[in-house]
Amino acid sequence: MSTHHSPLRVAMVGTRGVPAHYGGFETAIEEIGSRLVERGVDVTVYCRPHDDERPPRHLGMKLVHLPALRLKAGETLSHTALSAMHMLRGPKFDAAFLFNAANAPFLPLLRRSATGVAVHVDGLEWKRSKWGGKGRSYYRWAEQASVRGADALIADAAGIASYYRSEFDADTRLLVYGAPEKGNLATDKLGAAGLVPDGFHLVVARFEPENHVEQILEGYRNSKAQLPLAVVGSAPYAAAYTERIKTLAAGDKRIRLMGGVWDQELLSQLYTHARSYLHGHSVGGTNPSLLRSMGSGTAVLAYDVVFNREVLGPDAGRYFDGAAQLTGLIEELDLDKGLARAMGAAARERAQAAYRWDDVAEGYLRLAKDLAGGSSTRNARARRNPDSRWKVHGPERPATLRGAMPESAPAFAHPPTASEPRPAADAAQTRTR
């Protein structure tokens, strides 16, 4: 007599949801969730409404649309609170994936709604200058609350795994992001944007100091580059920084501010057909924009922090730590199309070997099954290391962060999966801003 097994029921909570219009979390949910559905998992995604879109399903995932307060500090928390309460109304989930450690206050509710809850802790959010003292203290508290309340922690980079090991002696699952398998060969939308294939450099970033858009613009302005610089991004809660970006751009006709680009087809064409992609992010873990450029086969110039070196490795990109150094790198690629193509090919090869969405989805599936089976690393007594060298008001950029990857956290050909050993990088070598 055959036994019927109900499909694994998984919830994904704490983001803007899908279809993916905005950031890395949303893209990850779209890519991972759709693959889990293909593997027979019942996936529910909690979404914030985007314009007038309220689709009940997307790529096989069930969607629940709930409102959110449009406030800098309240949008994510208000939506997650409503999501957690909504989850209590239905059958219990086998596993819930909560994105962003800031949502830690809702872990008790979520643990009543799911057999096991994993928190994707994201990057070192408290290091972002947009947060004042109270905001930074909250994020520091939320990290500890995640260790105490979650059944598993997900880190998307070895540097983040190292941080939680050093700070809380906490285990993490190292589950990275994937890269697109190939670039977009179409060019029809570039013309409408006033650009031509292989005829521009590209920046895609929110306008925040930690993403170094201002430094990138300064480096480009000081260069003799002939190709224009397309700048994609905005910052709804950083008016002063945005004004500085606009001022820099206004002084150079080569710089083209495109604002936020929600058209994914256009964005894909921009990544694929840029001469180079300039990546200034410094406080996250594995960055989806960086992976997207690599998968598109575009030459990468990246800000020199351990997270970016972990993704690119020693040979798939070049690094800068200031505007002056970037100037020369831009000029070199502006003049040498062959070099740009060779760098892009190396970046794509690394992305295809090490950052595959199928592998990432398998890691999430294994974790979901573990959570459904009662596995938990939760430590209700966890405390931050009193001897921590990660200080809220410490040095902005420790010297140990520059240069090559730490020997204890090497770049790897294939990121460790949930069942493989975690890197144990020394925290002093993986600090970032």
Can you characterise this structure?
The chain is α/β, with parallel strands linked by helices and 433 residues long. Helices cover 37% and strands 15% of the residues. It has 14 helices and 14 strands. The chain has helices spanning 24-38, 75-88, 107-113, 133-149, 158-168, 188-192, 213-221, 239-250, 264-273, 288-295, 306-312, 323-335, 337-354, 357-372; strands spanning 9-13, 42-47, 57-58, 61-65, 93-99, 114-120, 152-155, 173-174, 201-204, 229-232, 255-259, 276-279, 299-303, 318-320. The strands form two sheets. The protein has an eight-stranded mixed β-sheet with strand order 3-4-2-1-5-6-7-8, with helices on both faces. It has a six-stranded parallel β-sheet with strand order 11-10-9-12-13-14, sandwiched between helices. Helix 1 crosses helix 14, helix 7 (213-221) packs across helix 12 (323-335) and helix 10 (288-295) crosses helix 13. The protein is globular and about 60 Å long. The model is unreliable at 393-433 (pLDDT under 50).
